[in-house]
Predict the structure of Single-stranded DNA-binding protein.
Amino acid sequence: MRSFKGTMNRVELIGRLGADPELKQVGNGVTVCRFNLATNRPGGNDDQGHRTSETEWTTVEAWERLAEVCGNYLQKGRRVMVMGSLRTDKWQDSESGQMRWRTYVRADEVIFLDGGVGRQEEGDEE
């Protein structure tokens, strides 16, 4: 049997966008796209004994060329598979002086799982 002695930071999610993605330029003109992904996990049982599910919201960031593709073709409700790694930013709040953290998925790959028209194509007629 093989043993694994290292560590691994790998995330794979399949879900739907909760809103249209945010595409913006940051320092030195680098493009970043942020979106929230809804995934479901089994919950408990309701009063009638039916199985419920709970929605988990995950912030995803894509950078550079992948950010441009996501920003141009993803929309609220689109189903995607995201592969990447977990990241955590830490900073001191300038108003309160308290430490703040933000954990998100940095996408290496985003696979579009359903059809649909991208934002750039909406007005195109052929």
Q: What stands out?
A: Confidence is low (pLDDT under 50) at residues 119-126.
